[in-house]
């Protein structure tokens, strides 16, 4: 079975995910954690490693590539090896870009979908066929929704700057958002069990910056020229509303984070997840 976690950045998904993995392994289950990033690190064969690498790079190139920093175009590497060696992700997260394009952010959402189709087919379903429990610590609809949010914001900016395509791109963003339920609710991508980790963006910002020292490249509206705590909260609050809609429509569990602290929240979320009838049967209530 597949167990997927969804929630805003920094709210505790990864911590809860690690706790669940430990519980499942203690019960004797094979657990395979599937993320696009982990697949990049573990895959060596040309298929699916090379397309996953190139799509990963292109998701950032399309999202950021039309922007300017200090008045100069971003010269994002054309090859994945150079991208990784030069550590471009933290470089992109370091400061906002200006005069970016909505079309690029919209294209990034399609690249994200393409990569996750390959990941699901070639990694997730192969592990499921062995009888493993597959864990997705961040259900990929999240990243697509954030890229669409950036595209929508940029469409307004581009229109104000006189871009003749801005309105049409903005309209297409809404159409693509309407398709996501069918795409991520499909047999290829839909998890067997999902849990929404929900909570205030103020907690998430405090925990994320304490953990990493800064927010990531797509954790605020930096690709649209806005990088601040306010920008982080705005992106997280806007996408959280959509996460709640999906969780309700798909019948997912909801774990509400409060100010009790990470350890107490993780313990409560773990018990809620492991009480799911299918997991309780699979893990023997251990």
Description:
The longest helix has 28 residues, at 102-129. The protein is of the alpha/beta class and 286 residues long. Helix 1 (13-26) crosses helix 11 (262-274), helix 7 packs antiparallel against helix 8 (166-184) and helix 7 (141-160) crosses helix 10. The chain has helices at residues 13-26, 36-42, 46-64, 80-85, 88-93, 102-129, 141-160, 166-184, 201-212, 229-250, 262-274, 277-283, and strands at residues 2-6, 31-33, 68-69, 72-73, 133-136, 193-198, 253-256. The chain starts with a strand and ends with a helix. The strands form 2 sheets. A 5-stranded parallel sheet has the order 2-5-1-6-7, with helices on both faces. Strands 3-4 form a two-stranded antiparallel sheet. It has 12 helices and 7 strands.
Whole-angstrom Rg: 19 Å
The order of strands across the largest sheet is 2-5-1-6-7
**Mean pLDDT over the full residue set:** 95
Characterize the biggest β-sheet: 5 strands, parallel
Secondary-structure element order, as H and E? EHEHHEEHHHEHHEHHEHH
Helices and strands, with pairings:
Layout: E1 2-6, H1 13-26, E2 31-33, H2 36-42, H3 46-64, E3 68-69, E4 72-73, H4 80-85, H5 88-93, H6 102-129, E5 133-136, H7 141-160, H8 166-184, E6 193-198, H9 201-212, H10 229-250, E7 253-256, H11 262-274, H12 277-283
Parallel strand pairs: 1-5, 1-6, 2-5, 6-7
Antiparallel strand pairs: 3-4
Helix pairs in contact: 1-11, 3-6, 6-7, 7-8, 7-10
